[in-house]
Design goal:
Blueprint lengths: L2 H25 L1 H15 L3 E7 L2 E8 L6 E5 L13 H6 L3 E5 L17 H15 L4 E6 L1 H12 L4 E7 L20 H11 L8 H25 L17 E6 L7 H10 L3 E6 L6 H4 L1 H12 L2
Parallel strand pairs: 3-4, 3-5, 5-6, 6-7, 7-8
Antiparallel strand pairs: 1-2, 2-4
Helix pairs in contact: 1-2, 4-5
């Protein structure tokens, strides 16, 4: 075969791959975005592992120096370890060993049909995760639903938590002022409403991306509904637990959070005498993703005291 035919064959093959990739991205953009975030974390030095907790596989991402103080970051409802992609490198660069588990039912962890997905039961999963990795005491951070989870863990097992960080966290017994069904949107209009709740100035989502987000939302809706059903009863509220916490507590809140308003962060601050409240101006509910540059230095300063 002549070199011209080889070049032509290579060009045709490359073109076919490009077309296939383009079609794949158009059909399943969420998968491409997730893969890009996973690759980005790996390129920054993060590693992917799994452990068994109560008979189920829990996936986690870890980065930072092996001998650094352990920090465990717990994501929110419908989230995953990669939600910390902007914040974790700042902590790792400061010398911390950062662990980011996918809660049971989320990300790349197992999704058992017989699990409650309640805040207290997910707290047991995080405790089992610490035990599986031999982490005797950690700095523990929770965002949104993850914030409620770490409050329960810190109350029940204070010896395991050096410092507690709550970011736009659930816990206060107050009904949401918005329609919680938006957490599992079924139409582009509902997705737009959810985005407006999550961030102050949401971008316009292309129609093909919105379509795939709704597909993924439908697949995991049963888990989100089960978790929300338990939270909305008020039984998991932490109003009575917070005053009993003795470890240092940092409370970080987006000033423009419409999902869990700042007033709830202020209430938490009033219930924990030794707490520090830091309000991030211009930030909504997605503080770890969109405001990491402001949140990271605050966390590092708190954890290095």
């Amino acid at each position: 075969m002549s070199w011209k035919k080889r070049v032509l064959g290579a060009a045709v093959a490359a073109g076919a791959l490009a077309v296939a990739a383009g079609v794949g991205f158009w059909l399943r953009p969420v998968g491409y975005f997730n893969a890009a975030n996973e690759l980005r974390m790996c390129l920054s030095g993060a590693e992917n592992h799994s452990v068994e907790v109560a008979g189920h596989r829990v996936h986690y991402v870890v980065e930072g120096p092996v001998d650094g103080p352990a920090v465990v970051l717990v994501h929110g409802l419908g989230g995953r370890a990669e939600d910390w992609r902007n914040l974790a490198p700042l902590l790792a660069q400061a010398g911390f060993r950062v662990y980011m588990p996918d809660l049971l039912g989320f990300g790349r962890s197992e999704k058992p049909a017989d699990f409650s997905y309640s805040v207290p039961d997910e707290a047991d999963v995080v405790l089992g995760f610490l035990d599986a990795l031999g982490l005797k005491q950690v700095d523990l951070e929770g965002w949104s639903m993850g914030g409620g989870i770490v409050q329960h863990l810190a109350f029940r097992h204070p010896e395991r938590v050096r410092r507690l960080i709550l970011m736009d966290a659930v816990g206060i017994n107050e009904k949401p002022a918005w329609d919680t069904r938006l957490f599992t949107p079924t139409t582009p209009a509902e997705l737009d409403q959810l985005d407006a709740l999550l961030m102050p100035h949401p971008p316009q989502v292309p129609a093909f991306v919105a379509r795939d987000i709704l597909r993924v939302s439908n697949q995991r809706a049963w888990i989100v509904h089960r978790a929300l059903a338990t939270m909305l009863t008020g039984r998991d509220a932490t109003d009575g637990l917070l005053p009993q916490l003795k470890m240092p507590v940092l409370i970080v809140w987006g000033a423009e959070d419409r999902v869990i308003p700042l007033s709830q962060g202020e209430t938490m601050h009033s219930l924990v005498p030794q707490s520090q409240l830091v309000v991030i101006p211009g930030c909504g509910h997605l503080a770890p993703v969109q405001c990491a540059g402001q949140v990271g230095p605050v966390m590092v300063e708190f954890e290095k005291r």
